[in-house]
Amino acid sequence: MSLRLDGSTIRLEGECRVEDAEPLLVFLQDGDGRRVDLTAAGPLHAAVVQVLLALRPPLDGPPGDPFTARWLVPLLMLRRSV
Amino acid sequence: MSELLETFLTEARELVQQAADDLLALERDPADAARLDGAFRSIHTLKGSVAIFDLAPMAAALHAGEDLLEALRAGQLALDRATIDLLLELVGASEAWVDSIATSGALPKDAPMRGKALEAALRQPLAGDAPAPRAAPLAESPAAPDWLPALAAREAEALARARAAGQAVTALRYVPAPDCFFLGDDPMALIRAVPQLAALHIAPRAPWPVEGMDPFACNLVIEAASTAPAAEIRRVLRLVADQVALAEIPAPAQPATALPASSTSRSLRVDAGRIDALVDLAGELIVAKNGLAHLVAQAGTTDPAFARALAESHAGIERLADAMHRAMLGLRMVPLGRSLVRFPRLVRDIAARLGKEVAFTIQGEAVEADKAIVDGLFEPLLHLLRNAIDHGIEEPAAREAAGKPRAGRIALVARREGEGVLVELSDDGRGLDPARLRQVAREWGLMEPAAIEALEDAAALDLVFLSGLSTASAVTDISGRGVGMDAVRVAVEAMGGRIALSSTPGAGTTIRLSLPQGASVTTVLTVRAGGEAFGIPAEMVSETARIPAERILPLRDAEAFVLRDRTVPLLRLSALLGLPVPPRGSAARVLVTGTGAARVGLEVDGFTGRLDVLLRPLGGLLRGMPGLLGTALLGDGCVLMVLDLPELVG
Q1: Testing the interface with A: which of B202, B210, B216, B220 to mutate, by most A Cβ within 10 A?
Q2: Helix (H) / strand (E) containing B201
Q3: B221 — contact with chain A (CB < 8 Å)?
Q4: Is B181 in contact with A47 (Cβ distance < 8 A)?
Q5: Least confident of B73-77, B230-234, B247-251, B497-501
Q6: Are B422 and B484 part of one and the same domain?
Q7: CA nearest B176 in A: which residue?
């Protein structure tokens, strides 16, 4: 299990696989103002990245995964501000 | 202008020059494989750099040039004169385009047409001679990909950083198939595996649906840049190779003359403006130091011991300030080659247009001079070269008839001479005929007929520098030379230089430009005239003399004196300046200015010394005041007017 809803925060934990994309999408669409916490997340599958890019939820971090922190978070934040 | 574009322009100029050099060398020796490789590398690198900007016509033309060079290297085509012409035309167009980008930020309007024509012409030999032209296709996709400029613009910072570190960059665009998730691909994992990532951007391929997003359909476009070799990136992405496009952005060109890497070749590129600011400061220091000399003299009258101590300290500061100033000026020194390198190609072009054959040689490219002088030399020299080819060098047939080799010889030689630089341009063409020059000068009424007759042959040649003669276009047909020689003289003199000409009818002409090496500090002779002090640039003074009053000859309402068996007119500086003219004593103090027929003696009240000053151009009320070159601040706070003798006398 790498996806957990904790109040209004969706926590991604460990390696996030392709099958996590759909539950993530559902969690984000089910409740307004849901946040995504990347602190404990490992490498993100492209399908997961795609959901985050499309829905642009507020992110909590800092991400534990260096690649996510260095390359993805700036993009995901950038998308938010556009 | 963005830093990326600025680097590109600098680099592109170097590459264009390098390619031109190689091509010209190939023209002399078509078998020189190293030069062929060099030309290919320059064009290849330039094409790569162009691809990161939105310069499609230029990129396409360069690409065609690169293919042609590649075929030549592979031996599929033989290198002939027509091919070199074509490649040089590409180089010439690239140069024009780079200039246009530098000035207006875009390619000129005719670029698409010119680029297409060039591309077609460059591709033609490939189509004709080699049925399978692209035997060894280059690694990357044929034309510069259209997505690259946008990526380069977005990631300019990352690219500039990589290029500053001298690294080649590979840009990649990965558009995963929509069903790739079902096939078990994780594009993110693949990108993660790309080594030495320098930039990453992810965007949707199609806009995200407002509702009903399908989390299992991949809708991503991933663009990235990496400093890893393209082959390594290709290996990582080999399983999705059909969805990936790569484009190499070559590393910035290394300095063209690849010196052996050593500590001496380590250099730092500094903006010229900063150097100028330092030179100004060092110049001001010299001026401040001169002020100290004034104090020493003052102290000498009241406290000799203190004055001695002060003088010693002054000497120390003087030594240091001078050394510092010299070192600063040295920073602005650049090799003349900077201006000269473009000439072989230009000479070739001009000669071809005029149907002349010219063997052109350059010597002394390594001689250094101030940047302003080196840059300022280009125009006058180009003018002189044009004249030499157009009017000096005869038609090939005429040369053969005169027993000369078909190809005219033009030599450009630069060397250090004393404190300055001498640039000598000689040709073995038809030369100048003093008799024709005299005749033209008479017809145009440029001088008194008697004065024209009195001119010796050598002095008559200087008539070409008269402004009346130079603007008369008809003169070129008669004298064979003359257009713009006045402009050349003015340009050379504006740099503090002098121009002299010698010629032998039928055997050729030699023009010598004597230029100062540095440009900032001017040595002036200080003189008194009409009770005031003036400065006269030392380089305008050819000699000073004391002429006993009885040897001054009245000439109607003027005066003259004889100097080494030549009669030289004598003018009084105070009269020229509209100042009271004091009575003359037993001898006149005279400085001689000008050369040849334009030699003039100027009588001053006295010489007071020699000074190094920082010459400031005239500003404010004084701007445009005739006869004034500029002003200089003296040590005692006085302002010294520095005179423009040629203007005052002429």
Answers
A1: B202
A2: strand B197-204
A3: no
A4: yes
A5: B247-251
A6: yes
A7: A46
Do the beta carbons of residue B101 and residue B13 sit within 8 Å?
no
Chain B hits for A46, CB-CB cut-off 8 Å, are 176, 181, 185-189, 218, 220
Surface-to-core class of residue B621, CB atoms within 10 Å of its CB (0-12 exposed, 13-18 middle, 19+ buried): exposed
Confidence of residue B138 (pLDDT cuts 50, 70, 90): very low
Give the integer Cα–Cα distance in Å for B105 and B598.
47
**Residue B85's domain is classified under what CATH number?**
1.20.120.160
Give the distance from CA A25 to its chain's centroid: 10
Give the end of a domain, one of B203, B218, B249. B249
> B367: helix, coil or strand?
coil
* Range(s) of the domain holding residue A70: 3-81
Q: What is the pLDDT at residue B408?
A: 93
Q: What tokens does B497 get? A: 């230089």
Same domain flag for B512 and B527: no
B593 forms beta bridges with B541, B600
Residue B259 within any structural domain of the chain: no
ipTM of the complex: 0.92
Whether the per-residue pLDDT at B227 is higher than 50: the answer is: yes
CA distance B237 to B244: 8
Do B457 and B505 fall within a single domain? yes
Q: Is B413 exposed, middle or buried (0-12, 13-18, 19+ CB in 10 A)?
A: middle
Residue B234 shares a structural domain with residue B302 = no
Interface test with B, best of A18, A50, A51 (most B CBs within 10 A): A50
Residue type, B314: H
Q: Does B225 touch chain A (CB under 8 A)?
A: no
* DSSP letter for each residue of B156-171: HHHHHHHHHTT--EEE
Domain-embedded: residue B139: no
Alpha carbon of A60: minimum distance to chain B alpha carbons (Å): 20
Q: Which domain holds residue B112?
A: 3-129
> What domain count does chain A have?
1
Kindly report the nearest CA distance between residue A82 and chain B, in angstroms. Answer: 12
Contact B181 A18 (CB under 8 A): yes
Q: Which of B71, B102, B129 is a domain's end point?
A: B129
What's the CA gap between B247 and B57, in Å, rounded?
A: 18
Is B340 in the same domain as B375? Answer: yes
CA dist., res. B480 & res. B430, Å (int): 8
| A46–chain B Cβ distance below 8 A for any pair | yes
Q: Report in angstroms the alpha-carbon separations of B334 from B272, B370, B372, B514.
A: 11, 6, 9, 17
Each residue's pLDDT tens digit, B420-470: 899 999 999 988 888 888 887 787 777 788 888 888 888 888 888 875 554
Q: What is the pLDDT of residue B470?
A: 47
Of B186, B202, B219, the CB nearest to A45: B186
Please tell me the total count of domains within chain B: 5
Q: Are residues B561 and B611 in the same domain?
A: yes
Contact B583, B593 (CB under 8 A): no
Which residues does chain B have within 8 Å of residue A47's beta carbon, measured at their own beta carbons?
181, 186, 215-216, 218
Residue B53 lies in a domain: yes
Query: How far is the C-alpha of B271 from the C-alpha of B172, rounded, in Å?
Result: 34
Q: Is B189 on the interface with A (CB under 8 A)?
A: yes
Q: Are residues B502 and B528 in the same domain?
A: no
pLDDT of res. B263? 38
My answer on whether B402 and B491 are in the same domain is yes
Assigned domain for B359 exists: yes
> What separation in angstroms does the CA of B512 have from each of B460, B490, B503?
16, 14, 11
Contact status of B378 with chain A (Cβ, < 8 Å):
no
- List Cβ neighbours of B36 (8 Å cut-off, separation of 6 or more): B22, B26, B69, B72, B73, B79
Inter-CA distances, B498 with B195, B397, B494, B524, B626, Å: 60, 35, 9, 16, 20
pLDDT beyond 60 at B256: no
